Amino acid sequence: MADRYLSFTATAPGRFLTRRLGLPQPAALRRFSPERPFLTGALHHLTAGTSALDLTPVLARTGLPLGTADPAAVVLDATGVRDVDTLAEVHAALHPVVRSVAASGRIVVLGSPLDADDDHHRAAVQQALEGFTRSLGKEIGRGRTVNLLRLTDAAAAESTLRFLLSPKSAYVSGQVIEVGARQQPSQDLPERPHDFPDLPLAGRTALVTGGARGIGEAVAETLARDGAEVVVLDVPQAEQDARRVAERLGGRALALDITAADAGERIAAELPDGLDLLIHNAGVTRDRRLVNMPAERWSSVLDVNLASVLRTTDALLAKGTLRTGGRIVATASIAGLAGNAGQTNYGASKAGVAGLVRALAPRALAEHGVTVNAVAPGFIETKMTAAVPLFIREAGRRMNSLAQGGLPADVAETTAWLAHPASGSVNGQVVRVCGQSLLGA
After folding, report:
1. In the beta sheet, which residues pair with residue 233?
2. Burial of 57 (0-12, 13-18, 19+ CB in 10 A)
3. Which is more confident, 405 or 194?
4. Within 13 A of 371's CA, how many CA atoms are on the CB side?
5. Rounded to an integer, what distance in angstroms lies between the CA atom of residue 22 and that of residue 110?
6. What is the pTM (predicted TM-score) of this model?
7. How many of the other CB atoms lie within 10 Å of CB of 244?
8. Ramachandran bin of 440, using left for φ above 0, alpha for ψ from -120 to 50, beta for the remaining angles
9. 48, 169, 247, 387: which could form a disulfide with 89 (CB 3.0–4.6 Å)?
10. Could you give the CA distance from residue 213 to residue 86 in angstroms, rounded to a whole number?
11. Beta strands at 322-331 and 229-234: parallel, antiparallel or unpaired
């Protein structure tokens, strides 16, 4: 369903009226298209404190020219901030340039990972960057986003920087993402992460559960665009839709109840040559307040959204179906991170997905060479949200820093970044795709 309020605020009368009434004034977001793959303008590189990072080669490969005039994006390296005095350099660096960042522009603050052994002064000011970043994201407006990236190795963070500094991250704001050390590439991965071919997923097989419609269909489309052979999995009742999507993308459909006890074994049998990308997208809602929720509504949501993810992942890892260098990307939700009235079952299932990611990620990487991450969508414009009552739908759209709903493509682009061969240093992260929702952190 079209966002008529967004369209209205783009007109002169709409701008005048909403300004006078103090109403949200969302800006149309600049999203990725093959014709316009990059932001328009320069990339302004700033530093606070003394940094040891060699960022110049990495920033030069973002698709944005380095410069100071008319910036489309700003990268502030604050990894060298160690005390309150140098924290003041963050203000000094950004204060003069924030106003000049283009509409739908990007600000990325670079910080250091938090270490329990850190000097408490350094830990305090590095943690302060999180509150600073999220606060700036809530005030900057005009469709601009602000994110914090914690890293120790610039080259390991290249795919993440490219994503955050591109139109692909239009609905990702107020996030804190940590990138680990560079991973040794396996034989089937590009030796040089900075090559970034037009088809980075060529030669890889992706399984997308719940891929016949909505967000799952968008994810399948985006992975296929990037070169993956996509297997569209959905319930037998949706087999016709799954086949339609698969045929359009040059992939294949798999009709299967993901909650079946032997679902993992059946997937492995269908993919004897192995799998590179496992995208857990299948999910259901059965909303009702706990006092009115029968056991069946609870168990059906937990079975689809969490138990099936656990069983299938365990089976495919144990059988070696997921190849070295593979990626698991699960779908969480801001309902699981912040809670939502009437969704105790759904919130529990999606918080469980986040727990799975954080616990499994280090072991899966060490034992199988596979990364595990999650996307956590906020209000996304789908057929399901179009059926939500008007006032609840409008609240969902406006209660974020960008004052609008996201699109399935926003979730898909974030999934594709996590699935990228050069994203092997991104592990154990739960990234919200919510326009910096006002719910939760």
Report:
1. 209, 254
2. exposed
3. 405
4. 27
5. 33
6. 0.95
7. 16
8. left
9. 48
10. 50
11. unpaired
